[in-house]
Predict the structure.
Amino acid sequence: MKYSRISIGGISMFYRECGSSEKPVMLLLHGFPSASHQFRSLMPRLEADFHCIAPDYPGFGQSDAPGRESFTYSFDSLSLYVEKLIDALGIGKFYMYVLDYGAPVGFRIALRRPQSILGIVSQNGNVYEEGLGKKWEKRREYWEHPDEEMRKFFESAFAPETIIGQYTAGEKEGSIAPDGYSLDIYYSKSDGYAERQNDLILDYRSNVALYPEFQKYLREWKPRLLACWGRNDPSFIWAGAEAFLRDDPNARAVPLDGGHFVLESHDREIADLIRGFFAE
């Protein structure tokens, strides 16, 4: 594994990398409230077949977190910086693995450069209304009435117990190591974290508004798509995985017995599914 930094538009972006540059690129796009360390177990399992690259978005993990006065924390911004990273690293065509926030980031890139996408792995990376679990009802209320009271309420999303729950909900007892969520909790204590993450929670409404465009992309371009889904995820429910089959004849949906971060407990199985699916 190699760990690197690159300046993108004056922002130092961190990324981890493994596998031969002669292999096809697998771009791994992380979710909330995490960073590229989500892929620490998966990447070594894929490096024989892929050149794996996993960045931390601006404001996440080891990448710079510019102040809100100089940087707009929106999904458009995150996707544009990942796209600039793609160009800076000279990546042409690539596969992408999208998880949680990685889906709206990655699918925005797919809309702008569909010819670059070799295939998609969506692990609880939702682009359908029916994939939104019950917790999104409160978020819709926030999107419609974004006052300070609601903004304060959503600071609970960054509480340690909430972060731990995101990892452990829907998983067998004792199956989740504390490494991932402990690091996420550490990052959540950084200066300005709550404010920039709250901006993204509010901006998530822009992702839902784009769902029809994401679905149109799937119908028109029909990418090879593997939905590896933690079927016990309360955030992005199994119906969101099944919905891919409606729009993309080249999609396959596989339920896994785990939660939102099912990669934490099923990294070997997911790696096997990826290799098998894209080798077909």
Notes: Residues 2-279 form a domain with the Rossmann fold fold (CATH 3.40.50.1820).
